[in-house]
Specification:
about 5% strand; alpha+beta; single chain; about 350 residues
Length: about 350
């Protein structure tokens, strides 16, 4: 059986005793407003979402690019153009690339809006160094075309160099984020490429042994507001071989002919399908998520479902696990414990 992971790998594992927690009171309030705003967007209550974003940005001077982007999109939809233009400017300062026609399509008379000087400075030298480490991390992965075992020795050496070098950089210069390295090396959901190096230090890596556990650096960055809580939780799970921060996931199945059958969730998505054991697992995950400033795993899956058909927003690290079975009967057996979203009132 071959498993292909799209966007983000969700690992199962034994929970470690070490606990990570968001203790910064302003950031706790910030994430509370952000989570509520995202829930309002899912429910198409955009005016309330717009107001919640404004409250969030009062709590935290350096809001994450994802939240600025979603706030801008929300403000545009309800014609709060001054708010939208302010966030557009900030995102431009962070290095966000917009389409050539974005400005004129959304702001008919941009000259009437107040121009706000950039409040951040991009450290191009730091960014260049990080990009060079990503090249080391990715070189043999790209060359292997998925056959990592064939380049196990090279990958082990490259991962060791990249991870230890990244740790030294973080300890000397602080955890990098969009306010000091910009968005030039980030993807569409504002995930920075250097995080791939941390990703590949997963505790269960069977190609190259873990050289660096970045958990302490991530926890510090979380409480300084330099990394989003959803990305922090994702990386904590990878580095520690846990599955503390997510329960519900979206699945799709790939046939040997390349056909895609999407999208499914666990049948326990429906509360009436849960037993005591499942409830205990979900409650534990939700308690861990709350400690990180995250919404519940039920809210998370609702956002992921929403994003399947609403491409205007970038809430979180959306995960779709793709499964490919040699025999169709094996896929059908797995589907017995899943619900297809098209057939579910959600």
């Amino acid at each position: 059986m071959k498993i292909i992971f799209i966007f983000f790998l969700v690992l199962s594992g034994i929970a470690k005793t070490q606990s990570f927690e968001l203790k910064n009171e302003k950031l706790i309030k910030y994430y509370d407003f952000i989570n509520r705003a995202e829930n309002k967007i899912v429910n198409n209550d955009l005016k309330d979402a717009n107001n919640l974003y404004k409250e969030a940005f009062k709590e935290f001077k350096y809001p994450h690019a994802k939240d600025l982007y979603n706030s801008m999109k929300t403000a545009l939809k309800i014609k709060d153009l001054e708010t939208a233009y302010t966030h557009y400017q900030t995102l431009k300062c962070l290095g966000k690339n917009f389409s050539k026609d974005f400005l004129i399509e959304n702001f008919k008379n941009p000259e009437k809006y107040k121009v706000i000087p950039c409040q951040n400075t991009i450290d191009l030298k730091y960014k260049k160094t990080l990009d060079s480490l990503v090249e080391i991390d990715q070189y043999y992965r790209k060359l292997s075309n998925g056959n990592y075992q064939a380049y196990k020795k090279e990958l082990t050496k490259g991962d060791s160099i990249a991870s230890t070098s990244l740790l030294k950089l973080i300890q000397n210069k602080g955890f990098p984020n969009e306010y000091n390295i910009g968005l030039g090396s980030a993807d569409d959901i504002f995930f920075q490429k250097f995080c791939l190096i941390i990703w590949h230090q997963l505790a269960t890596n069977n190609i190259s042994n873990q050289k660096v556990n970045f958990s302490n650096e991530i926890n510090k960055a979380l409480n300084e507001g330099k990394i989003r809580s959803d990305i922090a939780g994702f990386l904590f799970d990878l580095n520690n071989g846990t599955n503390n921060y997510s329960y519900f996931k979206i699945y799709q199945f790939l046939s040997n002919e390349g056909k895609i059958d999407c999208c499914y969730v666990s049948s326990t998505f429906l509360p009436e399908r849960r037993n005591d054991k499942v409830n205990d697992i979900i409650n534990n995950v939700n308690n861990k998520r709350k400690q990180m400033g995250l919404s519940s795993t039920e809210d998370e899956i609702q956002k992921n479902i929403f994003l399947l058909n609403n491409k205007d927003y970038a809430f979180l690290n959306k995960a779709i696990e793709s499964w490919n079975f040699k025999n169709d009967s094996d896929a059908e057996l797995m589907k017995k414990n899943l619900i297809k979203l098209d057939d579910t009132a959600h």
